[in-house]
Write a structure and sequence with these properties.
Blueprint (H helix, E strand, L loop, with lengths): L25 H46 L5 H14 L3 E8 L2 E13 L2 E11 L5
Antiparallel strand pairs: 1-2, 2-3
């Protein structure tokens, strides 16, 4: 007859490959926490990028609005600001200030953006345009 060997020494050998109950699911919680950190970093990175892009859009809209206004400088303040407002609006901005100083035009523009859901901010830029003085 064959010999039977028993290596378990009174321990249920079927339970050796399962973790103790206190450690069950710990890796899942850790992976979820790491995933949440990545999502938060991604959201804040996107918010910073949105702010930078809105600032650039505001600068471009202000520059173009000031140039458009300066092209109409001889037509009077009303035409200057109307032309600037048209160009600023076409560039997703809002004209909040328009001032004519001789042949120079000073334009202030706001561009609204949403960096995070439920949070709206405004980027502002000012530009001046006029003839070259030598």
């Amino acid at each position: 007859m064959g010999r039977r060997f028993h290596f378990g020494h009174g321990v249920d050998s079927g339970r050796l490959d399962r973790p103790p109950d206190a450690q069950r699911g710990g890796a899942t919680v850790l992976v979820l926490a790491i995933g949440l950190v990545f999502v938060l970093f991604g959201m804040f990175g996107a918010a910073i990028a949105a702010a930078g892009m809105a600032g650039q859009r505001a600068m471009v809209a202000a520059d173009l609005g000031a140039l458009a206004g300066a092209a109409k400088a001889l037509d009077g303040d009303t035409m200057v600001c109307a032309s600037a407002a048209d160009i600023v609006g076409r560039n997703t901005g809002r004209l909040v200030g328009c001032r004519v100083d001789g042949l120079d035009v000073l334009v202030t523009v706001e561009v609204a953006f949403t960096p995070l859901p439920g949070l709206t901010r405004v980027a502002t830029s000012t530009a001046r345009a006029g003839p070259v003085r030598g």
